[in-house]
Amino acid sequence: MCDGTGLCEFREHHRNRFFDVGIAEEHAVTFGAGLAAAGMKPVVAIYSTFLQRAYDNILHDVALQALPVLLCIDRSGLNAKDGATHHGIFDVSFLSEIPGMQIYTPITVSALRRALRAALASGKPAAVRYGNFSEDERILRTFYQRETPEAPTVLCNFSPWDKVDAVIVVAGKIAEEALKAVDLLKEQGITAGVVLLEYLKPYDQLAVQVKAVLPPHVRCILFLEEEIRNGGMGMLLSDALRRVGGLTNVPMEILGVDDTFIVAEKGKSMYASAAIDAQTVAKRIAALI
Question: Which residue of 36, 194, 237, 244 is most buried, as measured by CB atoms within 10 A?
Answer without folding.
Answer: 237
